[in-house]
Amino acid sequence: MDYLINEGYPSAAQNFAQEANIQPRVDVDSIQERVEIRNAIYEGDIQSAIEKINDLNSQILDQDTPLHFSLLRLQLVELIRTCTSITNGDISPALDFATTHLAPRAPTNPEFLQDFERTMALLIFPPTDLASPLAALLEPSLRKDVAKRVNEAILSSQGERTKSKLLELVKTRAWAEKKAREAKKDLPERIDLGLDSDLRGHSGREDSVMHGNGDAEANAT
């Protein structure tokens, strides 16, 4: 349940609560604000995401300078993506944004400066001939990483857990198994989680609910 709430799946959380006959630990409707911010980032509308974050809690970005810089950098990436997708496209919006919002912040942190310089290099090379580190900036994974950090920052500001118990248990189990194998302990080649019977009985229905819920939210505007 906490996984669905933390990761921002209100419909799936509500369905789970009803089927399990349990009371959600938070108002499921309150998740929607995080969902809208996540969707804005996924769609490349970073300005809208920043405004929604500030409307929710203006101190989040004021107190988390690296996160704020990452959002601004992603906004620059989206501007560059737009102007370079057109032959002889106008790059002045990207240059103006970089000069106003990123150039003053970049020298305050070596990582900021490195990220800023790498991002500006996208304006030098054609999109079809980018080295791997530069091409990665245009991949959806950058949006997902920033959206994940924003989600965790919002949860933290609300006094909520930033990681679900389920994920923590899985990571702890994986760490324990790794250590045991490094110590040459006698372990089976594959260790099941012990959920096979549940998955065989319910995975089809639950996956369809989760998939539909996720798609609907990811495409929301």
Report what the structure shows:
68% of the residues lie in helices and 0% in strands. The chain is mainly α and 221 residues long. It has helices at residues 2-7, 10-20, 31-42, 46-56, 59-63, 65-84, 92-102, 110-120, 132-135, 140-157, 165-182, 196-218. The model is unreliable at 195-221 (pLDDT under 50).
Supply the key terms.
globular, 68% helix, mainly alpha, single chain, 221 residues
Report the count of strand segments: 0
Largest sheet: none
Rg, please?
Answer: 21 Å
Instruction: Determine the number of helices (DSSP H or I, runs of at least 4 residues).
Output: 12
Secondary structural class: mainly alpha
- Determine the fraction of residues in helical runs and give it as a percent range: 55-70%
Summarize the structure.
The chain has 221 residues and is mainly α. The protein contains 12 helices and no strands.
Present the secondary structure layout:
Elements: H1 2-7, H2 10-20, H3 31-42, H4 46-56, H5 59-63, H6 65-84, H7 92-102, H8 110-120, H9 132-135, H10 140-157, H11 165-182, H12 196-218
